[in-house]
Design goal:
Elements lengths: L1 E5 L3 H12 L3 E5 L15 E2 L11 H17 L4 E11 L6 H15 L8 E4 H7 L8 E12 L1 H14 L3 E3 L4 E4 L4 E4 L4 E3 L2 E4 L5 H7 L8 E11 L6 E5 L6 E7 L2 E5 L3 E2 L10 H14 L7 E12 L12 E6 L2 E6 L5 H11 L2
Parallel strand pairs: 1-2, 1-11, 2-7, 4-13, 11-19
Antiparallel strand pairs: 3-6, 4-6, 5-6, 8-9, 9-10, 12-15, 12-16, 12-17, 13-14, 14-15, 18-19
Helix pairs in contact: 1-5, 1-8
């Protein structure tokens, strides 16, 4: 069966790799280069989504935890276990009991994971890991497991395996319209007919449907997530509450430096996807609260546009679930996260009949 895939991010690449291994003839179309947009601008984590438990997204967390461990086994040179600490301060919005219960559930949902379970650390143990961490009011904290990866390198690793299996990849090929009978129409007017077409273009998926005069029952909530790279090394990964808010942010080791992220700012497709001055200041203020004496030398900023399903006025409460919509020979994917890309590919494979 001939399958055309529109979108060269991690979801499109995993879908192509999975379908070609199922015996399909697969062509993938990417308007720029592979892994150049949202999929290479993540927080560099393979994770189950601890905070998704607060929105009762248990199915997604279970799937993501299973896929987190699968990536560690699939690509051990590019995906590594990571132990994070979530400190608990007096007056925090999430106290010891709440965080402990959440992590107990997180570990139970993970099942027989290869990663160690969460455990409590006293304040002295945390300060031994990060001596310059703000000490006043520090009660202790929980250490727990997730994983870290180089998102672009891992995505290109998937692309190489897809090519080796026979996927025909077309970079610099913009698809401007789709047909419900399996047609893809390129910007230069060329039309290719497939048995099935999969629209998995991330933030651009709904726009592509609109250009094709096709409807969808769902709308995307385009949310920018910005990150900073600080020059100083990071010896310990942290998950922290933004002071005065329920939002959380990450402080992570990254190639000998420190990665801070992320923000959640709505924007449109026609705006540049880049870290704004206000986002930069927001992340630096949060970081300086916990490391008040740190030298803040920003060496790089980057941002990605998350294609979330519209579900809440507050983007931090928006669902991270995805949906697969089918109209005749056209399948559209809306939403989705990096960690669950292969699980999504398997579900798409099951719809082709």
């Amino acid at each position: 069966m001939s399958v055309g895939i529109v979108g060269g991010g991690i979801n499109g690449l995993c879908c192509a790799w999975h379908l070609v291994k199922q015996g399909h003839q697969v062509s993938l179309y990417e308007r720029d280069k592979l892994m150049q947009a949202t999929s290479s601008s993540s927080s560099k984590l393979l994770h189950g989504g601890l905070r998704y438990l607060e929105n009762a997204e248990f199915r997604l967390v279970r799937e993501a935890l299973r896929e987190r461990d699968a990536w560690l086994k699939r690509a051990p040179d590019l995906a590594k276990p990571l132990r994070l600490i979530m400190p608990i301060y007096k007056g925090a919005r999430r106290g010891r009991a709440m965080v402990g219960a959440g992590l107990f559930l997180y570990d139970r949902i993970a099942g027989k994971s290869q990663l160690p379970s969460a455990h409590w650390l006293n304040s002295q143990a945390i300060l031994a890991r990060s001596p310059s961490l703000y000490e006043a009011g520090l009660v202790g904290g929980y250490e727990f497991s997730d994983a870290q990866m180089d998102d672009q390198a891992l995505g290109l690793w998937v692309a190489e395996r897809a090519k080796q299996c026979g996927v025909d990849i077309h970079e610099d090929t913009e698809i401007t319209r789709l047909g419900q009978k399996g047609e893809v129409i390129a910007a230069n007017g060329n039309t290719v007919k497939h048995d099935f077409v999969i629209n998995i273009a991330g933030p651009w998926a709904v726009q592509l449907l609109k250009q094709s005069h096709l409807e969808t029952p769902y709308q995307l909530d385009l949310v920018r997530g910005s990150h900073l790279i600080l020059a100083q090394p990071c010896s310990q990964a942290f998950l922290l509450e933004v002071p005065g808010e329920r939002r959380i942010f990450f402080v992570l080791p990254w190639k000998g430096q420190t990665l801070l992220g992320t923000t959640e700012v709505r924007q449109s497709l026609d705006e540049p996807v880049q870290c704004s001055a206000s986002e930069r200041d927001y992340l630096l203020r949060a970081y300086r609260h916990f490391w008040p004496n740190a030298q803040l030398n920003v060496t790089e900023t980057f941002a990605g546009l998350r294609p979330l399903l519209y579900s809440n006025q507050d983007p931090s409460k928006a669902t991270r679930e995805y949906v697969i919509c089918r109209t005749d020979k056209l399948i559209t994917v809306l939403g989705g996260k990096w960690t669950t890309a292969m699980a999504l590919a398997e579900k798409i494979g099951a719809t082709l009949h």
